[in-house]
Amino acid sequence: MSGTDLSKGTLAGGRPYLAIPGPSVIPDRVLQAMHRPSPNIYAGELVEMTATLIPDLRKVARTAHHAAIYISNGHGAWEAALSNTLAPGDKVLVPSSGRFAIGWSEMAEGLGLEVEVIDFGNHAPWDLPRIAERLKADDGHQIKAVLAVHVDTSSSIRNDVPGLRAALDEVDHPALLMADCIASLGCDRFEMDEWGVDVMVTGSQKGLMVPAGVSFVFFNNKAAEVRAAMPRVSRYWDWIPRANPQEFYQYFGGTAPTHHLYGLRASLDMIHEEGVENVWARHERLARAIWAACEAWGQEGPLEMNVTDASLRSHAVTALRLGGSRATELRTWLEQTLGLTLGIGLGMAPPNSPEWHGFFRLGHMGHLSGHMVMGMLGSIEAGLGALEIPHGAGALDAAAAVIAEAGTPAA
Predict the structure, then answer these.
(1) Would the pLDDT of 3 be above 70?
(2) Does domain 29-273 have CATH number 3.40.640.10?
(3) Whole-prediction pTM
(4) Deepest of 89, 192, 256, 407, by most Cβ within 10 A of its Cβ?
């Protein structure tokens, strides 16, 4: 069967489910916190509440150091991190395992930086010995920063950030280690200080469960010293007034993103009530349930996970291949018939190539529960059947077995 046949009607009524890898599902608690009139931006509760956000953001980032807030998406956080620490002509090294590492390198090129990409493709993580050899060869320390994407949202590869720090330390290389945690923060384990990361960037719309539009840059004292030596930084991107504001507006370089801040306060409360380690464990278990289902489907059909080694997969997103035009057909059928939206296969094939229609992604980040995952998997199985896409049996049983590992709550 090809195309979408809605002649038997739709079951998409009710609340839709956005299972893409960001923006993620927004909790009702966050929506309710944002559903309010505009507040006073000069004094009162908004000003007082914003001061409480910084220490709680640091707890999620696992850092005792500095945090800056930007009204931007993740691309803005990329530019802020680069603008505060690097001048035109400076060299950066970018190990790539997906489209978003390439995107950060393109941002660097646009700022006049000299960029060297080590491209490991879309299916493999970093080759740390190869990166170590390149750092060792840089005996003049021309490389000023290494731009490292922890989880590449396009390929769903989770890279070894502490291993990269070890490679830098082994050759006593002074380059700043910058980590993109836009997809991973609040989903996959990340330890900024323990892992020796100097600068980390993230956004509001994934593990932090807030609408897109706010991003964050965390930086340690080493990065702060580099910024202090910079001859000039754009007034808007400069992180000094944002991290150490003398006036409230300096947190944001102007008017505050008022309703985002109320939503962020609610989302941080939810994260800390659950406990960051418990949040990581929940994402890990739900990801394994999804992988178990995908492995069962792939036993007798074309479905393949992009990352074959489970230890290298993100717990926030899973990239998959169906081949042909099947992925687009499946996504279309699920959205129109059941109200479930899956992610496109970003970066796995050129957008103008027919191969693009053979890839898709499952987002499983942020506000996510066992019944949501089982509902998503059941919907996908229905779609595979309706579209007559070959697939193995037992996927839902395999996923349920992983979910059941949580055990029965004590009476």
Answers:
(1) no
(2) yes
(3) 0.94
(4) 192
